[in-house]
Design a protein that fits this description.
Shape of chain B: globular
Radius of gyration of chain A: 21 Å
Order of helices and strands of chain B: EHEHHHEEHEHEHEHHEHHH
Helix content of chain A: 40-55%
Structural class of chain B: alpha/beta
Bound molecules: adenosine-5'-triphosphate, magnesium ion
Shape of chain A: elongated
Strand content of chain A: 15-25%
Distance between the termini of chain A: 64 Å
CATH architecture of chain B: 3-Layer(aba) Sandwich
Strand content of chain B: 15-25%
Oligomer: heterodimer
CATH topology of chain B: Rossmann fold
CATH superfamily of chain B: P-loop containing nucleotide triphosphate hydrolases
Order of helices and strands of chain A: HHHEEEEH
Strand order of the largest sheet of chain B: 3-4-2-5-1-6-7-8
Helix content of chain B: 40-55%
Radius of gyration of chain B: 18 Å
Number of strands of chain A: 4
């Protein structure tokens, strides 16, 4: 009954327009990243800049990618750490 | 000095040619000097939508290749003094014109016309690149469907990469009834996803088919809802602030009741 009411009043989360919106959002994350392959490269560089304030990382092994499963998109980064910096925060503030 | 406006979409068949013809005719009916340029080389259509197909002598390729003067190729509309068409070539392919030639052509046309409206072919290939080459601003047509909105997003990215900043969106073939029942994306949904400004909304309307059959754009029909939407849109292009028409006004009692109770 509730289902029926939701449907009549157009509030059903599974109404086809909501399905359309979810699918569009997902597909556009990929499309937009494709339009500028530069995007992931730029992001990597910025990530390295920030992270090296805190630790030494293996920059060449760093991987950044989009992963989508179950209607969500996640930015997944694999960043091999070589060693932590001592007093990282303070160094950054001084530097 | 006039303005060059290109009408794009990415996905084919969403209403670029219909929109070009109606906006162009609408502007001419307001008294502006308008030229419509059909850049869909090999798939000429704008001429039949305008009802001018029997008067074509020269086309855009004849002009860019110097086979005739620009003035000779322009077809004058009989209904409106200010309305002209530069037809596409039917026998050549999309590489028959280059972006540089288009830029030059637009510069020429801008001298004589208030508005140069360019009907772009579908796709993102050479024809698209040619069509946008001389444009000052761009409009993107979509329908409320996943594939059309997706392609519109792609086109917006390409337009911005080509320095055609802040294109405006036209949503065509909206069916208010389906939006109400949750089976079609609403204008707000589409705007939220594409994150660009809206120029106007055209409802699905049989009058588009009927007026296209006759070669008389719907914008000239006072009873057509789509015609009204196009008249509003033409006024917005000239800078007027015209509110969106209420497409939901005449939906059934149940819908009005729902609105009353507060369900959107
Ligand atoms: N609002 C509308 N209501 C009903 N029919 C419409 C509407 N808009 C467009 N159409 C119909 O849809 C079809 C395609 O329209 P149109 O030729 O303008 O699209 P297009 O984007 O120029 O296509 P192409 O990509 O092939 O150039 C036409 O038959 C037209 O009559
Ligand atoms: Mg067309």
């Amino acid at each position: 009954m509730l289902d029926f009411l939701l449907r009549v009043f157009g509030k059903d989360a599974s109404s086809s327009k909501n399905v359309a919106k979810d699918r569009l959002r997902l597909v556009l994350v990929h499309d937009r990243a494709d339009v500028s392959p530069q995007l992931l490269e730029d992001l990597k560089e910025d990530l390295i800049k920030v992270i090296t304030n805190y630790m030494d990382i293996d920059e060449r092994a760093l991987e950044v990618n989009f992963d989508n499963s179950d209607n969500t998109v996640a930015l997944v980064a694999n960043i091999p750490v070589i060693k932590m910096k001592r007093n990282a925060k303070r160094e950054e503030k001084i530097g | 000095m006039g303005e060059v406006i290109v009408i794009t979409s990415g996905k084919g068949g969403v209403g670029k040619t219909t929109t070009s013809a109606n906006i162009g005719t609408g502007l001419a009916a307001m008294g502006y000097k308008v030229v419509l340029v059909d850049t869909d080389i090999g798939l000429r259509n704008l001429d039949v939508v305008l009802g001018l197909e029997n008067r074509i002598v020269y086309d855009i390729v004849d002009v860019t290749h110097g086979h005739c003067r620009l003035k000779q190729a322009l077809i004058k509309d009989k209904r409106f003094e200010g309305l002209h068409l530069l037809p596409a070539a039917q026998t050549k392919d999309k590489t028959a014109v280059s972006p540089d030639q288009m830029r030059e052509l637009c510069t020429e046309l801008k001298k004589d016309f208030d508005y140069v409206i360019i009907d772009c072919p579908a796709g993102i290939e050479q024809g698209f690149k040619n069509a946008i080459a001389g444009a000052d601003r761009a409009l993107v047509v979509t329908t409320p469907e996943v594939s059309a909105v997706r392609d519109a997003d792609r086109i917006i990215g390409l337009l911005e990469a080509a320095e055609l900043r802040s294109p405006k969106l036209i949503v065509n073939r909206l069916r208010p009834r389906m939006v109400k029942s949750g089976d079609m994306m609403s204008i707000d949904d589409i705007i939220e996803i594409l994150a660009i400004d809206l120029l106007g909304v055209i409802p699905e309307d049989e009058m588009i088919v009927i007026t296209t059959n006759k070669g008389e754009p719907a914008v000239l029909d006072n009873k057509s809802r789509a015609g009204q939407a196009y008249r509003n849109m033409a006024r917005r292009i000239t800078g007027e602030d015209v509110p969106l028409m209420d497409l939901y006004a005449d939906l059934g009692l149940v819908n009005r009741l729902k609105k009353f109770i507060g369900f959107k």
